[in-house]
Structures are given as structure tokens and as C-alpha cells.
Amino acid sequence: MDTNYFVGIDVAKDHFDIHILPDNTAFQTGSAAEDIAKLIVKLKKLSVKLIVIEATGGYETQLAAELQANDLSTAVVNPRRTRLFTSATGRLAKTDRIDAKALALFAQKLQPPARPIGDENTLKVKAIVARRRQLIRMRTAELNRMHQAKNKGIRQSIQMILDLIKQQIKDIDDQLGLAIAESSQWTKKAELLKSVPGVGDVICNTLLAELPELGELNRRAIAALVGVAPMNCDSGKFRGYRRIRGGRTPVRNALYMATLVAIRHNPKIRTYYQRLVESGKKKIVALVAAMRKLLIILNIMLQRNQPWQPELC
To answer: What mean pLDDT do residues 69-91 have?
Structure first.
């Protein structure tokens, strides 16, 4: 009977630390393309059931994409989850080698789902969307400085930066449009998503880039993945408030803004939100429920490959 191997890879800028269970094999390799190719050849010789990598601000993206492209099941997980897991095992020391072993153990014991990283175009759009968010944050910071600035020269300086950022955002939006147009599948998805009142370019592009699972999971799974599923907080006879936790922050933020628009312009979402408020729900609770409702509708639309219809959900 073949042994199932579980691999943990700790990612640094210049190298990777790898740990393989159950053999307890540990080694280090470089992060260059040729090093990744050699690592893949080595792992392909084993019956690897799962590889776990932490999300590390982008350094892991190319490695994870290459592993998945070579049919090696790979999960990119939130570092918070692995830290909590490591603490629960009583391991307090931290080095790259120890982290790699902890990731391998995490893979072996918890076996998180290996979600697709996306193809080259997906990664490209994801990077562009991330850059747009950075520019928006920069614009907000400069606008805040403008409100505080009294000196004419300083205000002129800030305005020059704001004009530059405005042009950069326009250029980024043009790049996004071109990137989406390169894929007929993405173009079709974008048309479906934007047929919903309240869904514009920003939420559409964010969903395409940051939530490739949209349309492939059931309603509960997609809500939990985004972080809009209510989580129980009960103990004994105590029944606490249900709260949302975790999920993909960029998607949830974009969904929040889209829902605010939908409450005003989408009769289906507006009626649902108003009914919850009138029944005594707090407005923020009703808003989160409306976010979940909108997300589920979008998920169903892509599953069925059909545009917006009020009776969908």
C-alpha cells in the first residue's frame, strides 16, 4: 500500500524550507524557477496527498501555482490558523525548519481543502486589483492630509499627488478591462455579475480575482469562505450572538459596498433588508444578512450561467 505523504513548505524571499511526513525528511531549496522545477520533480516521485503553504504576502503565489499546475494538491492557508495549531501542539520555538514541520503536521492532521490558485490571467487580474486597492488607500490618505493642510504650497503639493493617483487608478482600470477581455469565460462571468443591480466594476473585478470558487460551491460554503456566515457562540445554556468571522477581507469589503448600493437600487435586496429591520434586527445584522443574500444570488447565477432575475433566491 502506497504511503500518503504530507508536505509543509515554509516560504521565505530567497529560499524554501520543506518538511515531509511521515518520513520526517527536511531540506532547504532556493526560490528561483529552476529550484522550483527540481522540487516538483522530487515531490512527483512521492505519493503526495497534500502540500500546505502559508500565505506570505505574495512570495508563495508562484510556488503554489507551479505545484498545482503539476497536479500536486496544494493548500495556501491563513498564517493565523497555523499559528493557533502550532500553539495547541505546545511548540513555542520558531525557526523556518520548525515552521515547515508544523505546516506538514497541519497538513497531515487537518487536511485543509486545496483550493485553486488560478491560471496566469487570474493571477494577473488579482495583482491589478490589489494595486488598485493600494491606490485607493493612498488617495484616502492624501485626502485626509488635504483636509488638515492650511498652507497653500502644501495643498498644491497634495493636489498634484491626488491628480497623479487619479490618473493611475484610471490606467489600472483600463488594464483590468483588457485583462478580463482576454478571457471569453471571464467576459461572460463579468456580464452575468454586472447584470445584478448594485454590482459594478469594482465588486465584479474583485470577485473574479479574489473568489474564483464563486459558482462552484454551495451557498453555505461560499458564505463561510467570504466570511459572511453567522458563527455560533454557545456554551451550556448560554446562547450568544451569532457573529461573522474570518473569510476573505477584500471580497467582504467589496461586497459590503455593493450591498449598500443594492439596498437602495435592487428591489430584491432592499425588500429583504427592510423586512429584517422591521422585524427588529439591528441594521448591521440586517446588512450582513443582505450581503450574504447578494453573495448567494451571485453564486447561483454563475452556477446556472444565467443573468439576474428577481426570483433567483
So the answer is: 90
Cell of 311: 426570483
Give yes or no for residue 255 having a pLDDT over 60: yes
Higher-pLDDT residue of 238, 8: 8
Q: How distant, in Å, are the alpha carbons of 43, 64, 82, 102, 114 from that of 4?
A: 12, 20, 21, 17, 16
* Longest pairwise C-alpha distance within the chain: 77
Pick from 54, 66, 65: which is nearest to 7 by CA? 54
In 3D space, the residue among 46, 50, 57 whose CA is nearest the CA of residue 13 turns out to be 57
Angstrom CA distances, 39 to 25, 52, 279, stand at: 13, 14, 58
For the range 79-88, what are the long-range contacts, defined as Cβ-Cβ under 8 Å and sequence gap of 24 or more? 79/54, 79/55, 81/106, 81/112, 82/52, 82/54, 82/106, 85/109, 85/110
Q: Kindly report the pTM of this predicted structure.
A: 0.73
Torsion of CA 62, 66, 71, 73, to 10 degrees: -30
The grid coordinates of residue 122 equal: 487570474
Nine-digit cell string for 68: 498545482
3-class SS at 305?
Answer: coil
Amino acid occupying residue 236 = G
Backbone angles phi, psi at 312, to 5 degrees: -60, -40
Cell numbers found for residue 61: 503565489
Band of residue 166 on the pLDDT scale cut at 50, 70, 90: very high
Report how far residue 5's alpha carbon sits from residue 32's, in angstroms, rounded to the nearest whole number.
24
Q: What pLDDT does residue 310 have?
A: 80
Q: Residue 207's Cα: distance from chain center in Å?
A: 9
